[in-house]
Amino acid sequence: MFENELGENCEFGCYHPAVTACYYILVIGITMFSMSPFFLCATFFFAWLYAVLMRGRKVIKKNLIMLLTIVVLMTAINTFFTHNGETVLFYINRNRITLEAFVYGLSASVMLISVMIWFESFQALMSSDKLIFLFGKFIPVIGLVISMIFRFVPLLKNRYEEISMGQKCMGRGGQKGLTARVRQLAKEVSILIAWSLEASIESADSMSARGYGLRGRSSFHLFKMTGRDIRMLVYMVAAGGVVIAGGALGETTMAFYPKLIWKIPHPAVFTAFLLLLILPLIIDLAGEYKWKKSISKM
């Protein structure tokens, strides 16, 4: 299970871009303002699960390294530099190390990691044309910037790999000694920066020549809001509205200082959040099952 990455080819990615954007705005927004361990564990689990479905098993190793790094750093920093809390674990130079500071740092790190992993699947689903379609007509500059941000890191990575491979083919790779390696790295980074700046100028001139951002400019797209999209929007807004209302009443958080107060969220609010989180998984797995079933009948 989850051996092949789906990316934009998944069933959930076939919905209208507004549906996908609405889903991630709700999920990421709720995650960012939730500190309850119940909500954090749920969003963390489904973020990982959907990222593996979208990107394949290779994402596990990368996300695991990121997870351990962020958890260790944030938990350690908050534990050793925040001395609030009643439950003292031990003392370091008369500074209290408390359980409350440790749990808060751990919760904050899980929340941050969950948001980052959700953005991974968002990047796989929301291509540049979808982002420009959503924002290009109303806020063209912001729409272009957002699409470039999500494209920037993988683009630089691919360009750097091309530069490095070219340098190796020219016999300039695999130098011995730290100084030679640093010089070669600086040369490759310099080429990468020059290439990126030149490509940015060409893209800006090309878009300016085509009239991007001018009033009245039309654009071609294949996106059309259907009844299926409207029903999905109503479902997401209803589930998200329940969770947001619960969050306004304090159901998505808990008290850390001066004493940990474990609060069990209202079943209706937590169930609505679970139904929102599991939505793309059900859609993609059902779509993949139908596709395999149709292939087997051929």
Automatic annotation (TrEMBL):
Regions crossing the membrane: 23-52, 64-81, 101-119, 131-153, 230-249, 269-287
The UniProt record lists the keyword Acetylation: no
UniProt keyword annotations, A-Z: Membrane, Transmembrane, Transmembrane helix
Record keyword Transmembrane helix present: yes
Membrane topology note: Multi-pass membrane protein
Pfam families documented for this protein: CbiQ (PF02361)
Top-level taxon of origin: Bacteria
InterPro entries, per database record: ABC/ECF_trnsptr_transmembrane
Name recorded for this polypeptide: Energy-coupling factor transporter transmembrane protein EcfT
Lineage, top ranks: Bacteria, Bacillati, Bacillota, Clostridia, Lachnospirales
